[in-house]
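Researcher: Structure for this, please.
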Amino acid sequence: MRVMKKMKHLFLAGSIALLLAACSTSGSSGTEKQTDGVENTAEELIVVRLSDATNLDPHFITDIPSANILYQKVYETLVRPDENFEIQPGLAKEWNVIDDTTWEFKLQEGVTFHDGTPFNADAVKATMDRLLDPAVGSPQREKFSMIEEIEIVDELTVRFHLSYPYAPLLSILASQEGSMISPTAITENPEALKENPIGTGPYTFEKWISGQEVSIVKNPDYWGEEAAVERVVFKVVPEDATRLAMIETGEAHINDQVPVTEIERIEASDTMELYRTEGLAVEYLGFNVEKEPFDDLRVRQAISHAIEREAIISGVYNDVGTLANSAMSPKVFGYSESSKPLAYDLNAAKKLLKEAGIEEGYKISLLTSDRKERINMAEVIQSQLKGIGIDVEIQVMEYGAFIEMTNNGEHEMFISGWGNATGDGDYNQYNLFHSSSHGPAGNSFYYTNPEVDQLIEQARQETDQEERKALYEKVLQIELDEAVYVPIRNYEHLAVSNKNVTGYWLNASNYLMIENVKITE
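Model: Predicted structure, token format:
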């Protein structure tokens, strides 16, 4: 990377620009729902969702549904992505690259946290020091491990000193993991942040009734443009049909977890409107490679050969999304068209199982969360694996329990997805496959390969973008050859709203953005 100075609202020509170009959102309806000049008349926005939050501390959140409640609402970041996933100012109004490993940020003036603590360079340092402290035990720590020191230059200027050049720094700072937390809360009662978030955002936390709802209210002292509605309630409604009925009748306004089986019903409705946009995430069938029989490569390869992935895309997902060829979607920097999963081949599957000593009727547990399409996918996989003599027991868990099991390594085979928050291959590869990321950080495969570790580390430090792509292409193929997972689907994000709601949008990471939402009655 060249030394670059005095660059406001930085877009690194050889690094970030390519990343951002790879991440611009598009889709059949992938733009903000227009407000058309309609005045807002409702004071409360109700968002219905399948599952409850699991944690409200951004340093310990490991799932997008939890982060979605807080991201750019209660918590804000130094920089933030716009609708095209291009980096814009946030709590930092400008930034410069001093040299390859030194980034300087100028902070907004007059910003306070919800508890009255000033937002300044001290707050940035306190937040990042907590995140990077091994004793804190944040599963997000490794994502920022290239940060060596946070230097306070003056009250509103901070410098990030890196241990090596890291091109996607802005993208990781723009993700929910980069949320700025009140230093007073960090000092006085950090444990309380799990249930009582304190940020700088346009909304302040009101209450969390476990299993029922989380509510946030307009921040009257917000430094930026005031929130569009007075109160937002994220209601837990597990039943798909009930959520849709609430949208259709106007009892609720937005459902950002839409089953693909309900698309026809939504499109036929006079009171509902469907929102679709391409995403950064990939859905997959994964293996815990530390558990028998998945510690045997031949078993993983056999199952990979036995999965007819195209049938899942058409039969389960109604062709929403596209067939994945790796753990990276085409919208993520580092994606390669050349990645080749193991082909569907029942004879090869049976031969490998025989070599591994797996006999007819062998029982395997398949863990999935309680999303309708994932349960349907599990049933299809159960049927497909029956064809090679494997009996699959499907284990359906509520989402929070699913996360807890995979974080603790208590699973065998599982259906999951990785919602890339930055659009860069490093966020995908380091978190999913690096040996230091076992468990909550993202590596639910518990996969360890020194060669893969080395390639991932090399790619995150490489400043030449073509070289980075080549490294990712190589490491992606190793992971596929070792059958760590079976890629299934590149996401297409769906939301449904009542037709009296305008101005919301989903970004490519599937975060619900409501700063301009309007509700007419």
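Researcher: Any notable elements?
Model: The longest helix spans residues 465-481. Confidence is low (pLDDT under 50) at residues 1-38.
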